[in-house]
Amino acid sequence: MTYTEFLNELNEYKEQSFSEFQKKLIPTQQTILGVRTPTMRAIAKKYAKDFDDIFSFPNEYFEVIFIKLCLVADLPYEEFLKWVEKCVSWIDNWATCDCFKTNCLKKHKGEFLPILDQLFSNGGEFYQRYVLVTLLYAYIEEEYFSTLLKYIRMADTRLYYVHMAVAWLTAEILIKYYDFGLEILQSEFLDKTTHNKSIQKAIESYRLTNAQKEYLRSLKIK
To answer: Among 7, 53, 110, 189, which one is most buried in terms of CB atoms within 10 A?
Structure first.
């Protein structure tokens, strides 16, 4: 399959109005055609056997990068490891970052921790966000409380998308392990804005009781 053939297929599914909508929400250096996420995932599955061809294509379109990451996310763990760092290096927006999830981590969480360390040490905004979002999806368990704390403490919340990821992660911890989440808030190592955003996002959830939400409101920093 050639790059031209691949783009022709993507263009069959693009929607101009959806493209304009996405451009307002997703700041990225790539051109956004306006292909919807379920369609991109379906295309990735359709062309799984054309992995090498697709990875030879340039990264000028949001959709091309998204499909590449979908292909890598479906790889077995050992193959996934070969590509994850390169994939994270391509991420420049929250949407691509947050959708780059892989099921192969379920049986390899401990093994993957050194990779998270390596990626986080890069220091880039979306390297950090990728690690934090991965923790959110795969590591909110008692076994990994110390790991969660470590990354929340290290995160550079001066970076907007890192700040939002920490707030999201902390909110999910509050929802799943309320007492542990309270420990994080009461330790007061989060900056004021991230602390309050974490509370806001937790309160928006239907999974907390009214009493829990009321107490969280009392912890907001004025």
So the answer is: 7
Residues 92 and 136 in one domain: no
Its pTM stands at 0.94
Per-residue pLDDT, 173: 98
Query: Between vectors from CA 76 to CA 103 and to CA 79, what angle results, nearest 5°?
Result: 125
Alpha helices by DSSP H, the chain: 3-13, 16-25, 37-46, 51-55, 62-73, 77-90, 94-99, 109-120, 125-138, 145-154, 160-176, 178-187, 192-203, 210-218
Whether residues 132 and 101 share a domain: the answer is: no
Q: Please indicate, yes or no, whether residues 126 and 213 belong to a single structural domain of this protein.
A: yes
- CA-to-CA separations, 81 to 53, 63, 72, 87, in angstroms, rounded: 20, 22, 9, 10
Residues with pLDDT less than 70, the chain? none
Res 94: pLDDT: 97
Predicted pLDDT at 33:
97
Nearest-Å Rg of the Cα atoms of the chain is 19
Domain boundary among 56, 82, 106: 106
Cβ atoms of residues 177 and 141 within 8 Å = no
30 within 8 A of 91, measured Cβ to Cβ = no
State both tokens at 115.
């990779």
For residue 61, list its beta bridge partners.
31
> What is the pLDDT, as a whole number, of residue 48?
94
Contact between 31 and 65 under an 8 Å Cβ cutoff? The reply is no
